[in-house]
Structures are given as structure tokens and as C-alpha cells.
Amino acid sequence: MADQSTSADGLPIPGAPAPQAPSLAEPTEPREPLPPKPDQDGPETVSPTGVPTGAPKTSNAQSGRYLTTAQGARLQDTDHSLKAGPRGPVLLQDHHLREKITHFDHERIPERVVHARGAAAHGVFTANGAAEGITRAGFLAKDAQTPVFVRFSTVLGSRGSSDTVRDTRGFATKFYTDEGTFDLVGNNIPVFFIQDAIKFPDVIHAGKPHPDREIPQAQSAHDTFWDFVSLHTEAQHHTMWNMSDRGIPRSYRTMEGFGVHTFRLVNAKGETSLVKFHWKPRLGVHSLVWEEAQIINGMDPDFHRRDLADAIEAGAYPQWDLGVQVFPDTEEEMFAGIDLLDPTKIVPEELAPVQIIGTMTLNRNTTNYFAETEQVAFHPGHLVPGIDVTNDPLLQGRLFSYIDTQLTRLGGPNFHQIPINRPHAPVNDMFREGFHQDAVHSGVAPYQPNSLDGGCPFLAGADMGAFIDVPAPVAESRKVRENPATFDDHYSQPRQFFRSLTPVEQDHLIQAYTFELGKCYEENIRIRQLQQLANIDERLCAEVAAGLGLTPPAPAVAVEDADPSPALRQVGKAWPVDGRVIGILADETTDLAALDQVRAAIDAANMVPLIIAPKGGKLAGQVTAQRTYLTARSTEFDAVIVAGAGRHGADDADSLDAKAGNPSGHPAIDPRVAILLTEAYRHSKALAAWGPGAAVLAASGIPGDAPGIISTDPAQIVPALTELLSQHRVWERFPVAQTA
Ligand code: HDD
């Protein structure tokens, strides 16, 4: 316990009392300062001569006992401006007023031009050593443990937009390795819209809101986006993934991640191989359905952010395995006829299996959103010895863009000194001065070589862990602005993607295209995109055209057929159910002993039970209502159990029956219960009932013999639900034939 007679900043506290027990009233005495959290204290910056600077690493912001000015003077009042008398004018001399308001006026920094909305967490990466033969990166050696920080994001929306929009998701990981920081700045989609970075401003301008009215926010369902896509055949593959269920993930925890580009690994002997990075979520790949995603945008725009933070807080740490597809590093940089430098192409896992090289566990939430999630700066050029880039023209442009954007966003060239961006390897640079310089570099000779600082810092050789650029051959050629011919096929992989999906996934994709194109005003754009779809798959085109009321065009090009890749499907596998949320509708009629049993079984299965009651407070004075008919919506739950009578309350049951006229012969139920259940049913979620619950399902129009409806005694409910939830949804309930 720290000395209570001094504050965190070492000043005496006259008569400081012992800390008080928490109370609802506003505290009147200062409490013991909280110890700094690890993320409030970044690693030390080392001066050019290797000497720790000794400067305090971070301020005590909001951890000491007394409020101070930015200069550390204690304040007696922060609620009243200094005035010439209680009714008089405010005085210019009030430094605290001006400092407080000025700082507030400048609190916002520019949001990211893309990926503005994000959520992040800390964790650890543990390597299994499988990559030791192909890379000398120390953090991939067997059992090496490396701290990581991961930021997930949407691409198009502003910082305050909704989480569950249809969009690509960013999946950026910072590995704080002993040999320097490695950033794997990927997405949840393994291909990109464009093949050359020079087109990035074009695709983003097209996807962002229209520049005249600045609408729509965080949507691709508008004319400029589809104008661009329909004019760019290379964008068809990425767009196909966006229109699939991958565009609306259930959770960040259930997303795959991809490094997209091909990277070059180099081992201790200097041998190289080409790889593609994959993140495989331990919980499986799961998505929302479109109506559900739209409802969530209104009910809980922070759905993904909340889900990630809640899971980590509850100790249900999300995990991903990191894997690589490995290809021989040949002069052609091709594999199975696929150009490895083309970022619009995948290599199907059936042709090159993903080999697992380690596991990442996210186990700590952020302490301060701005300091960490907002200020973190990723860069695909942050590499470590053993990992190098290839000539993929998209990646090459990215190597310029990320440092450039941070100059504006984070206000200067020293953003690497912000705590979240500080490497955990010792930094010994000569990057002096500049805005917000935090390091106190010493020495007199910030140049290389020098004699005045004893030659320090010295350069390292490969044997001392230096990053050595792989001397990859560069073909003799002409300066040109063109792509290789092997980048030309833009249709065979989108076709392969569509044909690899199960019928229900194909149907969702068809609906998504029909929705998005249906939102375009310009018919020419719809027609042009239909032509693209016809080139990809005639049935896809015909079904979208039917939905739009247009005539499907004939294919304009001959496209090669590739074998379907079952690895691209989300449906058809069984996954752990950890963290699934089960809503339980309960009321005064519920058998509370059975309810206890069911809740305990859900807990034991690592899922989350939430009681939904007619109103707040406690049921029968015992069971806390965690949601009410007013605050609950089906979208929060993966499955719903009905354990009550579904009425607003015992008192008004008769009046509800009377109002409804009871035409169906079923008891009248609260309309919000009916909405909750019919939505869950429509979104193909598992439903269960016992006691009065079966009649509530029937009164909501839900057939008791439909797939995924469990009506049994309470002890059997959770095992049956677990079985259904391992498939994510009751797929048979979607109105689509189950075989192609
Ligand atoms: Fe990018 C941010 C992923 C192409 C330029 N990008 C950004 C983020 C992710 C990606 C996940 C958010 C990082 C964070 O959470 O802070 N970007 C990708 C992927 C791409 C890609 C997987 C293709 C394979 N990006 C790309 C190109 C360019 C950029 C071609 C420019 C030529 N990206 C940026 C940027 C951003 C960015 C403007 C905005 C904020 C930032 O960098 O730090 O520089």
C-alpha cells in the first residue's frame, strides 16, 4: 500500500484520510491513486548512445489524488470562470479557463481516411515452431511468446458509424517482437478490389458517401460504388466476397483474417519461400443475416465492439491460429497457374493447405480508447528479419501510404513514440526533433559514421539480427504503366467462389446483390453490373436480374471453370459454442427451480444466459431481469428459450386476451414477445420452450414441428441447443433447397 500522506506526484496531502468504501454519493475525499496499468507505461526510449533518457515515460493523467493544470499546479475550482464579481464579465487572465477550453477544442484528431471505425484489444501470440524452417523471424520460433495489439475495423464508415454494415473488415495485428515491431495489416477478405495501389483513392472515393450530400453513411449500396465496380472487372472478386455473408460478420471473434498479399520469408540459411498469411478463428467463421444486421445498426450500433470487449472481460478470450500457405519462390512467382503477385486472387486451400504456425489469444481490453485504439498506427512496411515484401503493386503502394497518412493523422513524424506504437525492442534511432518529440536524444553526432560519439550507434550485420532486404532478382525490363498479362483473368475466381458456396449462402449472396443494385438510381449502372454477373455465373445473373425486374444479359466472355473450393463455405461444419448468448423469456409463471437448472447448464457450456422479463427488477423477488420486453431484441441472442407465458404481466393478461379477441384460440401474448420470437425464427435461430412456453411459440405463429424448435423438459434443453448452435444457425429453415 502506498504512503497515504503523499500523492502519486509526491506532494504532501494534509490529513489525507484512508480510502472510503464505495458509496452512491459523490465522494468528498480523495482516494488512493490507482497503480498505473501496463499500457499506461510504454517501453523506455533509448538515446542514440544507448543510455536511457531518464525522462518520465508518461504523465500520471487522472491517476493522482488532486486535479492539476497541465503544468501540475493543484486546482481549487474547475467549475467557475474567474469573473469580476458573481454577475460580472469573465476575466482574460483566467489561465485555467483558457487552458481547459483550448485543450478541449483540439481533442479530436482527423479520423482515419479509411477504417475509421474500429475496436481493439491486447493479447499474446505463441508460435508452435512450424515456421522455423522457412523464416528466421525470432517470434515464429517454437514457444516464443510475443505481445500483440489487434485492431478490427470497418472500411467505409466514419468513426461513429455502425458496426454491422455490409463492408470489408480490417484485421490489423501489431506484434511487439524482440527484433522490432511486425505489423500484419490484413482484412477479413483474402483478395482486394484493385491490383495497383494507384487506384486506391478511386475505389475509396467511390465507396465513401456521395460528395454532394454526404450520404449514404457506411454503405456500399449506392450509385458511385456500383459505378466503380461495374466499370472495374478486377473488383468483381472482392465484391463477390462483400456480397456474401462474409460482409456481415457475427462477431470479430468469428472472422477469418488474411494478409492478402504474398510475402517472402527468408530462413537462417538465406533460403526464401513465398507465403500467404491466414488467421483462423477457433470459434469458426460465422455471419449475421442481412435483416438482423440492419436491425442491430439501430438497436446496438456498437454490437461488434461490445461483443469483443464483453467476451474478453468475461474471460472468454478469443483465439485465432495463424497459418501460412507456402509456395516455392520461383522466378515466375506463380503457383498452379495463379499469379502470386495479383492481390485479386486466392490460392484455394485445397491446392496449398494452410499450415498452422502459432496461436493468438486476445486477453486484455484497452484502458483508453483514444490512447490505444485511435492512436495505434499500423504499417505493412513494419517488418522484422525473416519477413520481406514482394513486388505486388498493391503492397508496394501501401508501403508509401501508411507512414504518410500518420503524419497528418497523428500530427508529425514522431508517432512511433506514442505508447501504443512504441516497439518493445530497444529503439536507438537518430530521428531527432520534430513535432511531439518525446525522446531526449543525447550525444553530439547524430550521423553515421561518426567519431565524436565513439562511432555509436553501430550498424549490425545479419549475424547480429539486422534486417537484410532479400536480394530478390529484378527482371530487366522497360519502364511501363501496365500489368502483367497474368493479372488479366477477372472472372474465373469470382465464379469459383460463387460455385463453392452452399445453396443457402448463394441465396444470401443473390439477395445482397439484388438489394445493393436495387438501391442504385441509375439503371445503366444496374445493367452494367448485371453484365459482369453474367460473365461470372449465368444463374447468379438471372436471379439478380429477376429481383431487379431486368432482362439478364448473355455472358460476354468465355471463362474458365475452376474446381469448387469447399474451404470457402461457412456452412456445414460444427464449432465450439463458447460465448453464445441465450435469451430466456421468463415471468411470474416460470418454474424458478427449473430456470436455475437451465441457467447453470448454459453457464457450464460456456454460454451466456440472459433473463428477459416483462419489466425490470426481480422475478418473484429472486431472479434479476437482465433485459425487459422493452430493452430486448432478438438480435442480441443466438438462441431463445421461452419459459414464461409471454404476457406483459399477470395483471393485464385478461385485458390483452380481450383486446386481441383471441382469434387463434391461443393465449394473447405481448406483441414485443411475438416480434422477438418471429425474428429469431426468421433468422433461423434455435428456439426452445417448456411449460407455458410452447403455447407462446404457437401464439407467435411458429410451427412446433419446424426444424430447430425444441420442446422438451428443461434438463434436455441445453444439450439440444448446444448441438444446434454448433452449426451456428438452423440452416434448413431458410427457404432454399439444401442441395445444389
Ligand atoms: Fe489500407 C488503413 C488494410 C490497401 C491505405 N488498411 C488500413 C487498415 C487496414 C488496412 C486493416 C486499418 C489499420 C488500423 O486499424 O489502424 N489496406 C488494407 C488491406 C489492403 C489495403 C488488407 C489491401 C490488401 N490501404 C490499401 C492501399 C492503400 C491503403 C492500396 C493506399 C494506397 N490503409 C491505407 C491508409 C490507412 C489504411 C490510408 C488509413 C489509416 C491508416 O492507414 O493508418 O494509409
From TrEMBL:
Molecular function, one GO term: catalase activity
UniProt EC number: 1.11.1.6
Annotated catalysed reactions: 2 H2O2 = O2 + 2 H2O
Lineage: Bacteria, Bacillati, Actinomycetota, Actinomycetes, Micrococcales
Composition-biased stretches (Polar residues): 46-64
InterPro entries xref list: Catalase, Catalase_AS, Catalase_clade2, Catalase_clade2_helical, Catalase_core, Catalase_haem_BS, Catalase_immune_responsive, Catalase_large_C
Record's compositionally biased regions (Basic and acidic residues): 28-40
Pfam families to which the protein is assigned, alphabetical: Catalase (PF00199), Catalase-rel (PF06628), Catalase_C (PF18011)
Cofactor: heme
Amino-acid biosynthesis is among the record's keywords: no
Span of the signal peptide: none
Organism superkingdom: Bacteria
Keywords: Heme, Hydrogen peroxide, Iron, Metal-binding, Oxidoreductase, Peroxidase
Name of the protein described by the UniProt record: Catalase
